[in-house]
Amino acid sequence: MMRKKPALVAVAGVAAALIAVQGAAAAAAPPHGSGPAKAARTTASPARTGVGHGVRVGTVPLTTREHNGTYELIDPTRGGLSTHDFFAADNEKPLTDRDNVWGDGTMKSRQSAAVDAHFAAGQAWDYFKNTFGRSGIHGDGKGPAMTVHYGRNQADAYSDGDGAFFGDGKDGKNPVTALDVVAHEYTHSINQATARLASSGEGGGLNEATSDIFGTMVEFRADIPADTPDYLIGEKANYYGDGKPLRYMDRPSRDGKSPDFYQPGIGRLDNSHHAAGVANHFFYLLSEGSGKKVINGTTYNSPTYDGAKVTGIGRDKAARIWYKALTTQFSSATDYKGARAGTLKAAAALYGKGSTAYRTVAKAWTAVHVG
Question: Where is region (Disordered) located (predicted)?
Fold first, then answer.
């Protein structure tokens, strides 16, 4: 049966327009549960390892399911994680293939963007499971449903709490299925299952930053040749058609819209992705420190509000602190002041109140003018 196209209206409790960018009014997210069927649940059919040729991730291994001589984009090892084509005759069913070789690396094959989404969602699953012991979005061992080719001329991606939708770009030739973007959406669903940070105001900025943070961490974990890990957000999505990133974590103001430092009224910015700049900057400083630095060939130069030097504690510790805060301290009412308090409590619980990590959390927040 063909699923009806979701109405593009904002829905309470759903993170909307999750990679919407500067200067463009994005469509709101599809209503919860309006996409393809929930990810397939099965343990009967064996997992197989196929090869995928994605638009954004390049050539990668894919875990699929063999069923009656046909391969399906269902991953039995990751809770039935499944990937669908929105415009398929029956988009409740995942994509299928005869030889387990998927896509051709271009948009000529409708499988190529699906390779991106399937691989990236699997990487997100592995990161959260192996780092935090979280199996799936809800921690219940069930995989999400990823849907590609969503809408027409949609240069955005959306999460509905149980999966995500990815458009093919303004021209239908640039799918927003970059590794960090897919992981960004996966993380939005985790937020919905945990803290439920707001979708607007300062909480909306923290919500978007949370997804940027873990999208970045998944990118570093995957470490694939087609997408060198960095602190740039959505650089492979090519939204602008010039290869420029959507956002920059080391100095958010590089995008021309996002603030580097906190200021009153930040929650009134016209886009929560801009309000995310302060938390993204905090995370970069906590991870890597201030000043000029080259990581994997990319040059960063991160300023501080007071000019004080910050020495980072490493991205892995920084991510553990943010996740601990997300799952034990943050709530729908959390603002930037609350985020500072919550991450300090998380750092104390993980590393001790007298630890370098705790002191650096405090210093990094001060460096972005949250005190």
Answer: 28-54
Per-residue tokens: 161: 């709490």
CATH architecture group of domain 205-367: Orthogonal Bundle (1.10)
185 is catalytic: yes
Q: Is 208 a catalytic residue?
A: no
Catalytic residue among 53, 149, 184, 273: 273
- Structure confidence by residue, pLDDT tens digits, 81-117: 999 999 999 999 999 999 999 999 999 999 999 999 9
How far is Cα 17 from Cα 29, in angstroms, rounded to an integer?
Answer: 6
Return phi, psi of residue 219, to 5°.
-60, -40
- Mean predicted confidence (pLDDT) in 5-13: 30
Q: Where are the domains of the chain?
A: 47-193, 205-367
Among residues 72, 185, 202, 208, the one annotated as catalytic is 185
What's the CATH architecture for 47-193?
Roll (3.10)
* Phi, psi torsion values for 165, nearest 5 degrees: -125, 140
Task: Name the least confident of 28-37, 45-54, 194-203, 277-286.
Answer: 28-37
